[in-house]
Design a protein that fits this description.
The complex is a heterodimer of chains A (424) and B (395). Chain A is mainly alpha-helical. Chain A has helices at 2-29, 42-50, 57-71, 75-86, 90-102, 108-117, 135-145, 155-170, 175-188, 193-206, 214-231, 252-259, 262-279, 303-319, 334-343, 349-356, 359-362, 368-371, 373-386, 393-410; strands spanning 244-245, 250-251, 285-289, 295-300. Chain B has helices at residues 2-13, 68-91, 173-200, 206-227, 229-236, 249-260, 272-286, 326-333, 340-352, 360-374, 380-392; strands at residues 16-26, 29-40, 51-55, 103-107, 113-114, 118-119, 131-134, 151-154, 160-161, 240-241, 290-291, 304-305. Chain B has 395 residues and is of the alpha+beta class. Classes of the chains: A mainly alpha (424), B alpha+beta (395). The interface between A and B is large, with 43 and 36 residues.
């Protein structure tokens, strides 16, 4: 009887553990911080509405959840399993991923990794190349790639490691040369097509710029989530987190996860914690001591001097972060600091906008004339020389307008009333 | 109780309304429209329960059969004062000493105010193009000067020549523009001449000579314009300026705001903060960030713009700049941070903290921040935004 009870308790606890794991895994996939997807263009949004995924919502979610369980958290397998279950073509799969992101089944970082899989699953790709392998090259390629031959799962997760080993063996960093090598090897060993196809495509697609695979992302997220749970703060969807950075082709949150380690993110968040604490201070006093450690003079700053010092102090902390042992000369930005605090929930939603707006202090929004002042002045001066009279007056007028705009904005202001802002 | 009821009924029975032509805002522009004058106690004249319109310094009430120009001023003043009073009494529920008293309003009042003698009658001193809220005075009974209550005076307009008028606080637009243009051109021409001299000086080619003449000619021509700017200014700027205060709705609101705020700030004081507070309520009543603008028929002097985000300068603390729109724009800017429906009450709370010293940089900033901390709806997000706004305005 006792054994039966023990067995029942054991079974129940195993089931509970499984349930808890599943719930955690599910919530780790789910988006609970990003606003509207940064990868959702208007065009894509219109298209996926045409497919009327609303009706397919339940089977799609079920297929994705089931694919997730089978994939062992590898995007390559996750994608393939999802494809098998839904039987969507590539185009429909592409839009269905966007739809699933829009209903928060997963976040932008996972979405990007899933979208990246689509071209890797092309079957009709040719490995033709004029490059011929020599014996030594073949030996190296065999040594590095053949141990992967029997691996059927999580291929894309292993490719960066395999590729890095190849780059180091060949001492070759040029992607085009490496692709030629891989293509030549793929046509020489057709039995390795399943590995070589995604490898070549992924190398072509990203070179060496792959960062953060799904498994690493989820583990990092889980660690940060644990930190967040300790903080116990309400979670808010923020457009700032999912804002797409055009130059970097990734979202702000993705940049945080890709560029910073766990400990770095925690250190970044500390800066905002200190800023919030300092902003709430009610008094700032400058005290000067002599050699005997006696106070020789003191000055109580006014509220705006206090605010100015608090902001400058935060900027100094961000600038000097690179001196920290954990940052190793890495330069951090205010947006990353803010993103870290948002990710870890140290900032309340009502405070977030106001602190984000602080950026206006050192990176103000400029008008057309202010932005292009240097250019217009340079070309205006040139134009004044080159253009014959009376046309030379046009660039001169442009220069004068710029100067007038600057003077009217600066006026006769001085900053002598604020010790923190005094510049002359 | 019975007497009170009878009194109330009798007051209601003696209250009239009359349609008259007045200057009102129609969108941004000012138009003459027929308006309904409320709470009149006289059937023939502009005398109401709360406002009594008098002509000049006399005790003669302006009546409906007076000259049409005077009637227009009287009806405009009466109409807009009623609107302003309703705003403070009904919307803000504000209590102030003259709230239920009948205030004397003087139009075309050309004599300056004297705090002891009521009006300055000696010499030929006259006042034009202005409006004033007169604080109540005890009079000088031994000299036959009776005590007086709070009054609002609207001075008549008078054309003033540009040279007598301090435009844009010391520098006018064209002169400032010419100064910048002159400096730029001279520096530019000199640089070019020097560069040309270094490059081709030895050769003395015909091109060199032509260019040098052109550069020198441009500079000389510009210098000629600059030295004779008065003649050129006649081509671009207005020669005469005037302001008919009794026909500009926002000026009427501004003056009544002084009356309404008299319970908080002394009417004798006329500093940048007091004027800014009155401007703010004038803007609120007018529901417009622009005061006394787009009304060239009655005002050709620059109005005020609450959206003019000029940076702070310690010069603004001087009384000469009390009528600049800096404080107005500062208070108006709070709309972007504080819910609009709460802003008027918030500004009143700020006003209550400004009874003693009134330095914009110190007292106004402190009053804004302290008031925000006191309000239940104000959290650190609001405070941070207010501080940022002040910082961006160079505080």
């Amino acid at each position: 009887m006792m054994n039966k009870i023990k067995n029942n308790i054991l079974t129940a606890s195993i089931l509970w553990g499984f349930f808890v794991f599943n719930v955690n895994a599910q919530s780790l996939f789910q988006n609970n911080i990003e606003g509207e997807s940064g990868y959702l263009s208007k065009k894509v949004s219109r298209r996926f509405r045409k497919y009327n995924f609303e009706k397919l919502k339940e089977p799609m979610v079920t297929a994705f959840e089931s694919a997730k369980r089978k994939s062992k958290l590898c995007t390559y397998d996750l994608y393939q399993s999802y494809l098998t279950q839904t039987k969507f073509d590539q185009k429909k799969t592409y839009y269905s991923f966007h739809y699933l992101r829009s209903i928060n089944i997963f976040d932008d970082i996972i979405l990007k990794r899933l979208l990246r899989q689509i071209p890797l699953h092309q079957k009709d790709i040719s490995f033709h190349t004029s490059y011929r392998l020599d014996l030594e090259e073949l030996e190296i390629l065999d040594k590095v790639i053949l141990p992967q031959a029997n691996k059927v799962r999580c291929i894309t997760e292993d490719i960066p490691r395999v590729y890095k080993a190849l780059v180091s063996e060949f001492s070759q960093k040029k992607t085009r040369r490496m692709v030629a090598l891989l293509k030549a090897y793929a046509s020489y060993r057709p039995q390795l097509a399943d590995i070589m196809r995604p490898m070549i495509l992924l190398v072509q697609q990203e070179g060496e710029n792959w960062k953060l695979n799904l498994k690493d992302y989820l583990s990092k997220k889980s660690e940060l989530r644990a930190q967040r749970e300790n903080i116990d703060s309400p979670i808010k969807f923020s457009e700032f987190a999912s804002e797409y950075i055009k130059k970097e082709e990734r979202t702000r949150r993705e940049r945080l996860y890709e560029d910073y380690s766990l400990i770095q993110i925690i250190l970044l968040k500390g800066i905002i914690e200190e800023l919030i604490r300092d902003l709430e201070a009610t008094r700032l006093e400058y005290v000067l001591y002599n050699a005997e450690d006696e106070i020789i003079s003191s000055y109580i700053a006014d509220p705006m001097e206090q605010f100015c010092l608090t902001i400058n102090l935060m900027r100094k902390k961000i600038a000097t972060l690179k001196e920290n042992f954990f940052f190793k000369n890495k330069t951090s930005h205010f947006e990353d600091v803010l993103m870290a605090s948002l990710e870890l929930g140290v900032i309340q939603s009502y405070e977030f906008d106001s602190i984000l707006a602080f950026k206006e202090i050192w990176d103000p929004n400029l008008s057309f004339w202010e932005k292009n002042r240097t250019w217009i002045q340079t070309f205006g001066s040139l134009g004044a020389v080159i253009l014959p009279p009376p046309w030379g007056v046009i660039p001169m007028l442009a220069i004068t307008t710029i100067e007038a705009v600057r003077l009217s904005k600066e006026g006769n202001t001085n900053s002598l009333h604020n010790v923190c802002r005094m510049t002359n | 109780m019975k007497t009170l009821l009878i009194l109330l009924f009798s007051l209601e029975a003696f209250s009239y309304a009359k349609e008259e032509l007045a200057v009102v805002r129609d969108g941004k522009k000012a138009k003459e429209r027929v308006v309904l004058l409320k709470d009149l106690v006289s059937k023939k004249c502009f005398e109401g329960q709360y406002f009594h319109i008098l002509f000049k310094s006399s005790e003669k009430t302006v009546c409906f059969n007076d000259d049409s120009k005077i009637r227009l001023k009287a009806s405009t003043v009466y109409h807009h004062l009623t609107i302003a009073r309703e705003y403070f009494v009904q919307k803000l529920n504000l209590n102030y000493p003259d709230r239920d008293k009948k205030i004397k309003i003087r139009i075309d009042m050309d004599l300056p105010f004297d705090p002891i003698a009521y009006v300055r009658t000696n010499g030929d001193s006259q006042e034009f193009n202005n409006a004033r809220t007169i604080p109540q005075g005890e009079g000088f009974p031994s000299r036959g000067i009776e005590p007086w209550g709070t009054e609002i005076w609207f001075m008549p307009k008078k054309k003033i020549h540009r040279r007598e008028f301090n435009l844009n606080n010391g520098g006018n637009g064209i002169t400032a523009f010419l100064q910048v243009y002159r400096r730029q051109t001279h520096v530019q021409n000199l640089t070019q001449a020097l560069a040309l001299n270094i490059r081709e000086g030895a050769m003395q080619s015909p091109d060199y000579l032509t260019t040098m003449i052109r550069l020198a000619g441009t500079s000389l021509f510009l210098e000629f314009i600059y030295q004779n700017d008065k003649a050129f200014m006649n081509l671009f700027t207005r020669r005469y300026f005037w302001l008919e205060t009794a026909l500009v709705p926002e000026i009427i609101y501004h003056e009544y705001a002084h009356v309404a705020l008299s319970g908080i700030v002394n009417l004798v004081d006329r500093d940048a903060i007091v004027e800014g507070l009155a401007d703010y309520f004038a803007s609120s009543i007018a529901k417009s960030p622009e005061l006394a603008k787009h009304i060239k028929k009655y005002n050709v002097i620059n109005g005020k713009d609450a959206e003019n985000n000029k940076p702070y300068s310690s010069d603004l603390e001087l009384d000469d700049f009390a009528n600049a729109d800096f404080v107005l724009s500062l208070l108006w800017n709070l709309r972007e941070i504080i819910p609009t429906e709460k802003l008027d009450d918030f500004i009143l709370l700020i006003s209550n903290k400004l009874t003693q010293s009134r330095v914009v940089r110190r007292d106004l900033v402190n009053a804004i921040l302290t008031s925000c901390r006191e309000e239940s709806w104000c959290h650190s997000g609001h405070l941070n935004k207010v501080k940022l706004m002040l910082y961006l305005r160079s505080f």
